[in-house]
Automatic annotation (TrEMBL):
Descriptive protein name: Uncharacterized protein
Species: Phaeobacter inhibens
Length: 141
């Protein structure tokens, strides 16, 4: 998928969420993971994509607008939706859920910031967690 084509289509989507990821993945005949990764690389909005196995974080990518100190925890917090999906067999998130940012990050006063999460399972031992920042405190300088 070329960046030019994707940018043209992205204008029809107001925000980064799994609805947009699923629709665009179908349009470009690619996986949800690949599409979500590409969108985080391209979008101006503050978002992060993290991949977790039961053993911990495998990788993550942040949009350019996210500050460098916002690294996801090495292991999933039991309060996260991703934990429930990976360890307890819950279904993929149907909508974006708001959680305290300290569920995902070890940054001072993260408990006073909300972050959106809409995780999905890739296979038995791998989930992808799209995270969307709603606070300017998470933005890069």
């Amino acid at each position: 998928m070329t960046e030019v084509m994707l940018k043209l289509i992205l204008r029809d989507y107001r925000k980064f969420n799994m609805h947009a990821v699923r629709q665009l993945a179908r349009t470009f005949n690619t996986s949800k993971t690949a599409m979500a990764y590409r969108l985080v690389e391209m979008v101006k909005g503050p978002c992060i994509l993290a991949a977790y196995r039961k053993s911990g974080c495998v990788w993550h990518i942040s949009s350019k607008s996210i500050g460098h100190q916002w690294w996801p925890h090495r292991v999933l917090d039991p309060q996260s939706n991703a934990y429930s999906i990976l360890f307890n067999g819950f279904r993929d998130d149907a909508t974006m859920s708001d959680l305290d940012a300290d569920t995902w990050f070890d940054v001072p006063r993260a408990d006073r910031i909300e972050i959106g999460e809409q995780s999905f399972r890739v296979h038995d031992d791998l989930i992808i967690a799209p995270l969307v920042a709603s606070s300017e405190r998470m933005l890069a300088d």
